[in-house]
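Dear Dr. V.,

Thank you for agreeing to look over these. As mentioned in my earlier message, I'm a first-year student in the group and I'm still getting used to reading structure tokens, so any feedback on how I've presented them would be very welcome. I ran two proteins. I've put each sequence directly above its structure. The first is here:
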Amino acid sequence: MPSDDVPRNLAEVHERFTPLLITAAGDLAEEGLNVAPGDALELVHDFYVVALEGVLTGYRPYLSKFSTYLYWAFRIFARRRIAREARLRDVLVPLEEGMEQLAVQSSAPDAEDDPAEALDRRVTRALEQIPQECRRVLERRLVHRENERDIATRLGLTRHAVRQQLAEAFGRVAVLMDHAETIDEDLRPFALRLWRDEIPLMQVAKDLHLSRRQAQKRYRTLVRSLVAAARALEDVPTVRETRRKDA
């Protein structure tokens, strides 16, 4: 059992409490939440990146032991993250179909429309509105089924840049498809101003009374919060697989 001395930083938390948090993830799985064995470490890592600073700041020793506090803080975080990722499918499957249909249209622009293959108009509009650099990485991922390394090599980008562009692309499409609930609640107003209303970052900063540095930090946090969605793109079934399953 870890000591209940309050850790001073992430390194201490990682060393002393990671096993406890993996156990917490296992407890959630036993309660019926969708936590695959390989997902536990990713959930813990995301908790450290996104929430730990606030958890350490908010801890009050007179209320509970630190290990108890951390355990329940992680459970709350993990439940919200799992619920949000469960909603990704509402965006991911039509998004994959939209990308494939756009690719077909671009290669055969004179082909007649097949009503049976008609796409949700919101998907098409969203894909047409996102920046070209975001759309091209989505196409490589969803139409050509390439992984981050292959996309980076083909487009002359770092894997980090590919991951960032996939995350932003997903966020933009989610907002434009009226699925903003896939974005963390505290970041949602920021994302809507940026990606739905197309307000420049510095104007958003002014509207929200943020400094330039605060706005840039919030943007980085927003994109980082969507990296999990970008990772989930790897698991989207192809259109053909989806139709075969539904047949």
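The second protein is here, in the same arrangement:
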Amino acid sequence: MRVCCKSVLVITLLVLFAVTTKARENSDKLFDYLQHLYDRHDKNLHEFLLGELNQYVVQFPDGEKTAAAQYLIAKVYQEKGDRPKAVAAFLKTIYLYPNSSWQQESAKEARLIISTEGFFKDKRAKLLPLVDATSTAENSADRYFQYVNLAATFDHSDIYAVVINDARNFLILFPEDTRQDSVLLIIAEIYSRKGEAHEAEASYLRLEYCCTESPLVPQARYSRAVIFSQKLNDHKSAIVILSRVAMEHPQSEYAALATLKMGEIKKEKTRDYAGAIADYRKFIESNSDSAKVVEALWTIAEINTANLKDYNGAIAAYNEIVDKHKTDKRAAMAMEKIGDIYKDKLADYSRAAEQYAKIAEVYPDYEKAPELLLKAGSLGEEKLKDYKRAGDYYAMILDKFPQHKIAGEARKRIEKIKTKAGQ
């Protein structure tokens, strides 16, 4: 029985060897056939020929004629008038087969298309260096990876399908390569650029399932959540995924982004205003040095003002910007917002006037400072009937901003309140 099994195994190996040998022997004949089809320049065969050539490249990745076949793919696209795909195919020849005679020929052809076609006018500065460069990678996996990354940066809708196909070929050709997660991410991002939300979400999920230890998992999860919320209108799923990112990847930059995104979704989509404020507060506590802290505080203040009618909570958030982020350009705006709340929401005209006037003292370079002093004076004059106080605010305009266009208006009002005070 053992002898029989061994015999079967030997026979099977011999058959496989024979088939492989036969395939190798036929590769030259197959290429001659493809060259013959190309030489006919029959536009009716363009799609058929592209399919055959691509199959040849996959079937014989290290063949002697593979570089030539890849070059022919680019030439067929060129004949079709599909210039973006032609350039992408020439780039593939340049990077995957740097030592072949077709590398220079492809560079010449690609350079000519990019330099002369108006279609590439805005992309020339980016593409020409790629064409003129050569791959320094020593093995085919490195060269292929380099090409896929370059093709992905060539952000054009006409070649999205090509990039996805080439990225998938990388996964097939190099199943043990440690960069599979990066290639899976490229596939997902290309689907996202194409506007194919379901395919993009599923592709990000594949990275999460197949590369569980990858440092790219937080990014993939975050991107999935964004797609669920922005494209698929599934905000509940988005929040669940974002919560996982924040909890399971606290050291990742995407943890902070996830917390902010949860706040945004709760504010804009689910109208969970208290939950949104809680998320923004979590972000502020965990990322005190972030440039986005002021943005988070500003949003808290807006929610309190517009949605919760918690005006004191809004004032507290704006004051936090002023107290802790004095150099931020929005600090003066926050002071103005506090004045607006006192005036429009709480009818506390005295505090509103104080706030407007304080801006001229703390932020004299704020472009609206003169107008806000005028507003402070108006409140003193019309709402508080405190003409001395109003006059002091108008006088501050003449003292601090004598050349400003409203200085003349301040003078008129000073004269006007003198008459009122006399009455």
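From my reading of the second output: The CA atoms of residues 97 and 142 lie 12 Å apart. Residues 369-423 form one domain. Does that match how you would interpret it?

Kind regards,
E.
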